[in-house]
Amino acid sequence: MIASFPLSLAGFVLVVTLFTVGVGTLVIWVGLALLLATTYLVTGYAASTRALIRATLGVDIPTPTVERDETGSFWRRYRNRLLHPQMWRELSYLLLAFPLHVVEFALAIAGVILLPIGLFVLPVVASLHVMMAKALLGPNENQQLTEKAEHLQASRARGVDAAEAERRRIERDLHDGAQQRLVAVAMGLGRAKAKLHADPEGAQALIDEAHSDAKLAVSELRDLARGIYPAVLGDRGLDAALSSLAAKCPIPVDVHVAIDPRPPAAVESTAYFIVGESLTNLAKHSGATEAKVNAWREARPSGDIVVVEITDNGVGSASMRPGGGLAGLADRAATIDGVMTVVSPVGGPTVIRADLPCTW
Q1: How far apart are alpha carbons 96 and 85 in whole angstroms?
Q2: Is-contact 207 191, C-beta < 8 A?
Q3: Three-class DSSP labels, 72-127
Q4: Model pTM greater than 0.85?
Q5: How confident is the prediction along the chain (360 residues), in pLDDT tens digits per residue?
Q6: How many CB atoms lie within 10 A of CB 311?
């Protein structure tokens, strides 16, 4: 509040002065230049205010998307800028916020001296200020709905692609694995049936071979089912499932899971497969000697999320290349409106993080 007062005072004085003089000198054309300068000043003030609120109060106010018609003459583009609703919303904030900043400045000075004001009054005033800033400096309702619709459309498209890729993987695994084993079992039993009376010992050997192939087919089908949805995840939750993945990894993996209560099944399975694929990649390509897996549930104003982080001390340089494994994991996370990021500088360490919402 103390820091924002000089900014508000300077912005209020400059904008009111330029606007007043600009309107008064419109008849000699100088006012047009002054009004144009005022629009740029208002836009810059709004951007500075959003940055200051983000830095001091930790509240992120998205910058509105302003679409203007840049075709036509200079005066037409200038008129579009001057008459755009967002510019007037930002100007309204500047005019309304100045008296509020005056009150806030006095309360802030008093709050430094009187502890009750600092503890109980200032947070309430700050929340009211943030509400006004969000209403006037952030996107309006139509923009928010449009951006959400675009985000959902992109997530749906990525989800369809991920589901199609998963379907092809299952089909390929069935065709190349269990199906071939079962065909071999059927052929072996057929040959054993033909030799059963003429060559009992040869038939017994064929039956033993078919039995071995049948057990391998069952094992491959079990692995395939585990790849679709692992039984340990449904029975014992994410902690046990991630620990089982870590136990199979050829390098030491330290696992810490703090998720209570259990998230939806879609969130658990997405987190499971992100960790599994990440551990497989780092074991093959990272050159790491140790890794850490952290998963926790985090409360946010928009709803709880599950955060999963996989860290290793490898050589780094991992990236989400189109068509690659990490890009596929990002697509899987997008199906539930999740976001996956990869930070992997050359020389390491590599951090893969997924933020998975529990409601969508």
Answers
A1: 16
A2: no
A3: CCHHHHHHHHHHCHHHHHHHHHHHHHHHHHHHHHHHHHHHHHCHHHHHHHHHHHHH
A4: no
A5: 888 888 889 989 998 898 888 888 877 878 888 888 888 888 889 899 999 888 888 888 888 876 666 666 766 777 777 777 888 888 889 888 899 999 999 999 998 888 888 888 888 998 898 899 988 888 876 666 666 666 666 666 666 666 666 677 777 777 777 777 788 888 888 888 887 777 788 888 888 888 887 887 777 777 666 656 677 777 788 888 899 888 888 899 999 999 888 888 888 888 988 998 888 888 888 888 899 999 999 888 778 899 999 999 888 888 877 767 788 788 888 878 888 999 988 887 899 999 999 876
A6: 21
Taking the C-alpha atoms of residue 246 and residue 341, their distance in angstroms, rounded to an integer, is: 21
HSE-up of residue 40 (Cα within 13 Å, Cβ side) = 6
Q: How far, in Å, CA of 59 to CA of 98, rounded?
A: 20
- d(CA 99, CA 298) in angstroms, rounded, equals 37
